[in-house]
């Protein structure tokens, strides 16, 4: 039997896997973790798409972030995750309408607004 807890920021998901076959348990555990990771990626991608919509284009978002960030970085982040060190830049570029918590809840937690809604 496997009991596992996966944490993303201040939220956590617990699950218990029980099977007669240890290999099956391990494979199922890995599948569940992959699904949770996919959910996180989709949430983050939707938040980045919102940031692009606020700025108008990927190019404009890259320009507002500044530094060495180019349109190709934004494109890459849509298919992967925004690096934690760039989340504050996106938050500034969108004037706080997309927060670091929206972009990476696994790193920064659910965020103040989400915590107030839950409480």
Q: Can you walk me through this structure?
A:
There is one protein chain. The protein contains 7 helices and 2 strands; from the N terminus they run ββααααααα. The chain has helices at residues 22-55, 58-65, 71-79, 84-93, 100-103, 105-108, 112-118; strands at 2-8, 11-17. Helix 1 packs across helix 2, helix 1 (22-55) runs antiparallel to helix 3 (71-79) and helix 2 (58-65) packs across helix 3 (71-79). The radius of gyration is 17 Å and the shape is elongated.
Helix content: 55-70%
Instruction: Characterize the biggest β-sheet.
Output: 2 strands, antiparallel
Strand % is 5-15%
Mean pLDDT across every amino acid position? 82
The CATH architecture name reads Orthogonal Bundle
- Identify the strand order in the major beta sheet: 1-2
Question: Which regions have little confidence, pLDDT < 50, spanning 5+ residues?
Answer: none
CATH fold descriptor: 434 Repressor (Amino-terminal Domain)
Q: Span between N and C termini?
A: 33 Å
Structural class: mainly alpha
H/E series: EEHHHHHHH
Characterize this entry briefly.
By secondary structure, the chain is mainly alpha-helical.
């Amino acid at each position: 039997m496997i009991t596992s807890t996966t944490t993303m920021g201040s939220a956590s998901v617990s699950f218990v896997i029980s099977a007669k076959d240890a290999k099956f348990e391990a494979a199922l555990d890995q599948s569940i973790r992959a699904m949770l990771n996919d959910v996180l990626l989709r949430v983050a991608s939707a938040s980045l798409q919102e940031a692009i919509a606020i700025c108008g284009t990927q190019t404009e978002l890259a320009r507002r972030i500044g530094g060495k960030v180019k349109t190709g970085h934004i494109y890459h982040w849509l298919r992967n995750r925004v690096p934690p060190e760039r989340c504050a830049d996106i938050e500034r570029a969108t004037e706080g309408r997309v927060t670091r918590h929206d972009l990476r809840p696994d790193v920064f937690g659910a965020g103040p607004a989400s915590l107030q809604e839950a409480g």
